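Mods, move this if it's the wrong board.
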Amino acid sequence: MNLSIIIPLLNEQESLPELHSWIVKVMKENNYTYEILFIDDGSTDNSWQTIENLSKENSNVKGIRFLRNFGKSQALHAGFAKAQGDVIITMDADLQDSPDEIPGLFKMVTEQNFDLVSGWKKKRYDSVVSKNLPSKLFNWAARKTSGVHLNDFNCGLKAYKNIVIKNIEVSGEMHRYIPVLAKNAGFGKIGEKIVIHQARKYGESKFGMSRFINGFLDLITIWFLSRYGKRPMHLFGAAGVLMFIIGFLATGFIITLKLIKLYSGFETILVTDNPLFYIALTSMIIGSQLFLAGFLGEIILRTKNNEERYKIATEINLY
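Not the wrong board. Structure tokens:
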């Protein structure tokens, strides 16, 4: 199978028939063998009924319905697990991503041998203040932190080799950082393609300003996980040892100074009256706690169980 097209969605019943027809048109024009995987992330409208109707018209349409809203990352994870195509395309269901971009993305993966190709919505039709400017700041920070030089991490239109999506773990709200996850997994050939961005035709955006705040927090998380996720003791242990040494040296200094003054006949004060004593004590306590945190992190890492992160209510054409 040439293509698996994964489309996570939430309350997009108006756009689904048009999107489906558009994708089918592109598939037929290019003679692709394909499957369309709609992942209904807990929609409360008639999105699932629409998907069921489309599956009756087209056997290439498949669907997964969550019991409730679990988030875009979980929807992509479920789609990645079921995808069978040589190339996997992800796109949003709101018609802002153009299916006409699929052949170009497909060629970059199959002919230019890219592991992953991310869309870049260079010209956008979103609000400048609420989306464009925060998005530019977010992408700049992501580039600097991750070392992956993409202009648009948030673009939902991406293409992957099958082997890529089968070897990355998308959890939490890490869908923004799939290119970073791919890089950390060893897939180094990551490209970018300028794609058309279209104004939303139906409904309203499901994302607000909070997604950028969450995005920056996730960026910190993925920075930590990429460097210390498999070895937390290297970070917490090192910081703990450093703090403990500072406290230990400060304590040694206080005791030495006390003894020198006693033997020299100078007036001395109680150790507990010296402010440096409390700094030393606090440093040693914090150092011990950090060291313990490193140990606990190593234990958790080795004993953790992969819990089910979402509940599937129904599936269509998936066996």
